[in-house]
Amino acid sequence: MLSSTMKESMSTSIQLPGKCKAELETFYKSLQLCSMEPLTLKSATFLVQWSDEYQVDALKAKCEQFLMSNAPKDGPGLQFAVKYGLQKRTKQCLDAFKSRIPEHISDMHVLTSQECQEHLIDIWPLIVRHAGLPQMSMPPAEHMRSMWPFVSNLCIAAPRPPNFKGCRGLSQMFPAS
């Protein structure tokens, strides 16, 4: 852009509509090899957006690592990761969701959004099981959006299955009739 015959190379300024000067300065500093510009949640977030737009993969990967270590594993985090192609971060959020369905069920509504629907397919059987429903195929995504409040309430209210591991030892204490 600056070394070509484009109008930017002839001008003393470059217009970046919709961009913030402070973000541009941080983006530029982050591109410097010797820069140790510390990341924050705010800067990592906008730097992912800038690095995605300007195809700076190394910076994007650095920000993804920072987000994986410092950002909450929640619905907005998953949506952001999917939108900007942060595959490790996407997997991290989905794994957190799968491991603690009731804790994350309210955040999982983002799985019904257009960009995250493909990930709902993997989690659907776990949600159904946790809600205490019989196994069923997943309804179309457009139906899932309207069903979500009911499904999430079932997951929250679902009684925990009893733990029978200790019962075997107890049953041996009683004589058989």
Automatic annotation (TrEMBL):
Give the Gene3D superfamilies listed for this entry.
Potassium Channel Kv1.1, Chain A
What name does UniProt use for this protein?
Answer: BTB domain-containing protein
Q: Which domain of life is it from?
A: Eukaryota
Xref: InterPro entries = SKP1/BTB/POZ_sf
